[in-house]
Structure formats: C-alpha cells, structure tokens
Amino acid sequence: MSIEKVILEAKNIQSDRLKNINFTLHEGEIITLIGPSGAGKSSLLMLLNRLEDPNEGTIHYLGKDINEYPLEQLRKRIGMVFQSSSLFEGSVEDNLKFGPSLFDEWKPERGKELLEVVQLPKEYLDKNVEELSGGEQQRIAFARTLANKPEILLLDEVTSALDVKNVELIERFLKEIVPNQVKAMMMVTHDIEQAKRLGNRTFFMNNEEIVEQGRTSQVLEAPKTNTLQAFLKE
What we know:
The chain is α/β, with parallel strands linked by helices. It has a domain at about 5-15 and about 20-90 and about 150-165 and about 175-230: Rossmann fold. The protein is about 35% helix and about 25% strand.
C-alpha cells in the first residue's frame, strides 16, 4: 500500500489525559494503537473528532485546524466507532439514514449498499436493531458511520467483544475500505496479533504519551524501550 499525503497531524498536544502527543496520519494508512489500560489510547481518539479538546497544542485535518470546521462537518468527515455499537432504537434503516439525513444526503438505495459492505442481506433494513446479535449490531454501527462517507475512521476496541467469525469479517472489510472508501484509519486494539494484521504503523502508548511509533513490524518485533518489551511479554 502506498502512503500518500498527510491527512491529519497532531503537534505538542497536552490534555487532562495526554501529554507530548506528536504524530501524522497519511492517506492510505492504518495506524494501530496499543498499550495498557489507562495509557490514553481512547482519549487520543476522542481529541481527533472533538469529543474532547486539548489544553495545549494543535490538531490539523487537511492542513486546517480542526477547531475551524463546524463540529457536525468534522464528525461527518472523521467518523468514530466504539466498542459498544450504541445503536438508536428503531430499524436498521433508521440508524443508517440518521447521519446523512441531517445533511439531506440520504438515498434509499444507499441502505442496501451499506449492508453489502458489512456483508448483511438487504432484508435487514427493516429489522429492529434489538433483534440483531452483538456481532450484527457492531457491523451496523460500522455501516452507520460509513453512511456519512467519512475520510478518516477512528475505531476504539471495536472487535474486543466479538467472536472469532465476526472479528475476521470486520478485519476483512476494514482492509478493503482503506483507501477505496475511507482515506485513513486509526484503531485502538488490545490484540497484538490484530495490530500486526492491520497496522501499517503502530503507536505504543503508556502513561498518557506515545512511547514508541513506527512501522508495525519494527515496533513489535524490535521494541526499543524496556516498557514496550515488558508489555509485549504480558
């Protein structure tokens, strides 16, 4: 996969839960975030679509400070999927069309296209989300985020509660949608093997900062710090 221009850049970020954060995310790239609980991985993702704001430093999306984008537009273009699917009450279609409808962009045929991406039959459009399995709900959560046509996906432990079959399925379509549908992705994972399978680069976080970052194979196979060496042995 060729890595292209910088799409997201964080400089000297300090917040209540993070310190000394500096990185770039390029088009065509998947970055995986690993580290112990409480290291700041989820907090970092939340800064990137302004669920939280830093105390110091800047975050630029396509060369422009994210504070300069209207919040709805920013979250449309930088989509986030959580560990819990957090679907709304109602049908699958109700969930899929919610975001696009805010911008008057929903087209009925889009629902079938989105279900095809997450490998669910079109008949699911009329199903109540409460009738779905946990794995199906998470796949609908992905489809709901993709309905907004985001350029960046932020994923927070999205497969940690799923069975092996659903993990494999989600990993497969994540590989397929970058960079064809989504330009780049950042993904928090507790699964080192998943980081190896998906990440072009990996960031190891500990004590609220990025301790090591680089190509995934390099970070995981030749860790430079004692902290990461110890973490990988756990």
